[in-house]
Design brief:
Shape of chain A: globular
Radius of gyration of chain A: 22 Å
Oligomer: homodimer
Largest sheet of chain A: 10 strands, mixed
CATH superfamily of the largest domain in chain A: Glutaconate Coenzyme A-transferase
Number of domains of chain A: 2
Helix content of chain A: 10-25%
CATH topology of the largest domain in chain A: Glutaconate Coenzyme A-transferase
Largest interface: A-B, 66 and 66 residues
CATH architecture of the largest domain in chain A: 3-Layer(aba) Sandwich
């Protein structure tokens, strides 16, 4: 295998599983294809019914065969039942070598492990967590894990890097003709943003629902002219209670609260915290706390922002309700409060994944962000950020919109403690690169704030006396001192089990199988 | 030139202007292409501005060249200023051989005549009226007029029969990133339905607006990820007063009122006028009257329908407001009352042209229509309907959604008087076929009702004693008696100046140049 070093110093093979890879050469590159993908033309004629009563019928109608590709959204997060249901059906039908393209794999999907081992699922395209992630790290899947950002996923579907045979859309409500929304019914999950590129570009689209409403469903988030079958099931497609996980609760840890406060101090010092601010934060506990502190500050000072974006959380919705933003752009509703707001508040706007973050579109919303607060599992002295792997090399997460917002926002802040357990967060080289250092402006820890010397805000932030700025090397040294040395390098074999794509489709990094 | 006879008996050349033609072989055929069109991938990066201040800049950015194709919507109808503005600019720039793909050409576009004569505009794809239509009939345009239904237009854009270089979208409001709606501002025109396929499938998309609103515009009818430039002009893009034309007023003619009443009698007799009725009517005076009679009847009987569709008119909106429908699906707002309703009534739903009527999509709304009332300029004894040409062979109109709704609806009613002036409406053979007889169930005139023997409603309607049913041949004989003979055949040359496509892309008819 021939390797080429990319811009963040990672060795990328020229080819993998028969596909040529493009090494990452810096943000803002591409398009690497001239035209969008051209999905198959289907036809539903007057008198045809779309309503089916089993997933198997839909799989057959969609013509799925060995080696095929199926897609899913993860708006139910850890309460999603559909991905498992469809895979069980596929296994029963004796299909194999299937490529999964969900927008995320969550611990609830642990039960699919056996299908990786049996070669029923051989490729996964998305961030993964739980046992599936662990198994892939240990070489249990025959093919490749391709980790993409939310914008990168939308791009890959729109430009045909991924050709979806059947998109399965868990649909809280649908009418008989496949007009879908996520805001009504017992199983409301909010925005259907991640499913929108799938609906537009898949070769067959299946809405799976427990709740058939009279035609026309209203509002229409995904419209009938893209939906080929409507599967009406009694078995629930998902559990909205699973949307909120522990990672989505406001932190109470004083260390993290300090970090959250300092994030807001950094935004203030940058000059961006003023009338018309646009803002996004991740859904981690620290980011949620930062959102609350931002809210308090804006209220106190009478500052009105323009839009908040996300991952919509209760914290963000309350800012909208308090008049601190004119609008929320919502690609994913992170809690029931946000789901209800999307239903009831016309200023809470549903947004598709391309509209949110596809870099190779006519313009995505992350491009208009003033500031974003994001997390990491590691950051290195080049400000490269890791969100996907543990320090021992095992895969643990995807990356959500990390790459997208960090490239798009004027000011990108990474908020994390200097160490977690006995693991340092700042290192010489991150195990895996999810966002390149060129996207990152500031790293905020409980023991100081490092500003990227390449950031346009370097001068203004390092000159702000109230900010405890340090070099990233100093923070690294502090971390090593606390832990008593450098962390161990992960022990890996030479088999590549995963790649991390940049949002434009080039390759940022590869992930190796860990040693037993 | 080799010709093939199609299913409605018209001789269709095998090829025209280098393009192979598919003769019409009956409804429900196609797709004739396997895949959708793959538009160019464009990119707007963080920091890029989309806002321009002249149409010329946008034409240049879109890379329009000689032989190029540009598209427009006609939601301002006879109040549209943008199509003319862009063509004047193109003429100034010295471009030539341009293909126009508006959703309609109206009399306000008469001033473009000179560009046909100069070879600046050489092909037009849409229904036309006014001087442009007349000039094409007389051979003044070098290329070909292709008349498509609204659904056929959407299909041609989605399947790449038409490749749009630049779509110009007259946008009542836009934000700086090209999120557009038609319901706000001084120049509100309502639904932007016809522009939606253009936005999705054009290779470059330009929003032209007088009203730039803060990001994000809300609601978003066409989203930023498809819009490449936003041209902000002081000169108005359109005059909403031009939306309503005389053809959109309720008739007062007793003859037409009788026809309108009988249309409702036919629907009653068919058994479709019951709970859950779905309904569309054209925007002619008789159709509007029929809508009012339907409303009165439903109110009196306590019947509640499911949805009304259109061309939304005040008459239809009032039925929604009176609770006679659950929803209106609106691809085009026909008057200011409908525009306001789309803004304020959540049950009034905006719909794209593919969602409305694209036959080669996963399912369009016309497929779910119970009944539609439509007009015609001629109908023949095979129930073939002409909407586009005069009895002397000259082009006078397009056909709107005639083909789409007549194929989709269970019961299609053509409502027209037996004669207009000294011109009979029922003839042996229509001059041009816009909708094939197989789509038509009933022809309602002031002197009797003809039911198509092929209609599933033939027995029930002809057995209903309260309906004055006659054979179409009898109606034709009556018309000839009234006028004193058969109408003259149009005098034409052997040059083909236009074709009428069926909605699936096959060719229903050709239009010849008229003799001087």
């Amino acid at each position: 295998m021939k390797f080429v070093k990319n811009k963040v110093g990672r060795s990328i093979p020229e080819e993998l599983f028969g596909k040529k890879l493009i090494p990452f050469t810096g943000k803002g590159k591409g398009p690497y294809k001239e035209r969008k993908y051209a999905p198959k033309i289907r036809k539903t004629s007057p008198g045809d019914s779309k309503v089916l009563t089993s997933i198997q019928e839909a799989i057959k109608k969609g013509g799925l065969a060995d080696g095929g590709t199926i897609s899913f959204h993860h708006h139910f997060r850890n309460g999603d039942y559909l991905l498992n249901m469809v895979c069980h059906e596929i296994a029963k039908m004796g299909l194999k070598d299937i490529r999964l393209v969900p927008s995320s794999i969550q611990p609830i999907n642990d039960e699919l492990l056996t299908y990786l081992e049996k070669g029923i699922i051989t490729h996964i395209n998305c961030g993964t967590s739980g046992k599936i992630a662990d198994a892939i790290s240990r070489g249990k899947m025959k093919g490749l894990l391709t980790i993409r950002s939310h914008g990168g996923r939308a791009r890959s579907i729109e430009n045909g890097d991924v050709e979806i045979d059947i998109a399965f859309i868990a649909s809280p409500t649908s009418d008989e003709y496949g007009n879908i929304n996520g805001v009504h019914g017992k199983y409301a999950c909010g925005s259907l943003g991640y499913a929108m590129p799938d609906a537009q570009f898949a070769n067959y689209v299946v809405a799976v629902t427990n709740t058939l409403v009279p035609f026309p469903n209203n509002p229409i988030s995904i419209s009938q002219d893209h939906v080929d079958s409507v599967v009406l099931l009694k078995k629930p497609i998902g559990n909205p209670a699973g949307i909120v996980t522990t990672s989505l609760r406001v932190t109470r840890d004083p260390k993290n609260l300090k970090i959250a406060r300092d994030c807001i101090e950094v935004i203030k010092a940058s000059g961006l915290l003023k009338e018309g601010l646009s803002f996004q934060s991740g859904a981690g506990g620290t980011a949620l706390a930062a959102t609350q502190f931002l809210s308090q500050y804006m209220k106190a000072k009478g500052i009105k922002g323009s839009f908040g974006m996300g991952g919509a959380t209760e914290a963000l919705v309350r800012m909208l309700e308090d008049g601190l933003f004119d609008a929320i752009l919502d690609v994913q509703s992170f809690d029931i409060y946000a789901v209800r707001s999307l239903l009831n508040n016309p200023k809470h706007i549903e947004m598709g994944a391309s509209q949110y973050a596809n870099p190779l579109s006519s313009g995505c919303a992350v491009n208009l962000l003033d500031t974003v607060i994001l997390g990491c599992t590691e950051i290195d002295t080049k400000f490269n950020v890791n969100t996907s792997t543990e320090s021992d090399g095992r895969i643990m997460h995807g990356m959500g919109g990390h790459q997208d917002t960090s490239e798009g926002a004027k000011l990108t802040i990474i908020a994390a403690p200097l160490q977690r357990g006995r693991i340092p967060i700042v290192v010489d080289d991150v195990v895996s690169v999810n966002s390149p250092g060129e996207n990152i402006d500031v790293f905020v820890t409980e023991r100081g704030i490092a500003v990227n010397p390449e950031s346009q805000y370097f001068d203004i932030l390092t000159k702000t006396k109230s900010l405890n700025t340090k070099s990233i090397e100093d923070l690294k040294a502090e971390a090593e001192k606390l832990i008593g040395g450098k962390p161990q390098k992960p022990k890996t074999t030479d088999r590549i089990v995963g790649i991390i794509e940049y949002r434009d489709g080039s390759v940022l990094d590869v992930i190796y199988q860990v040693e037993k």
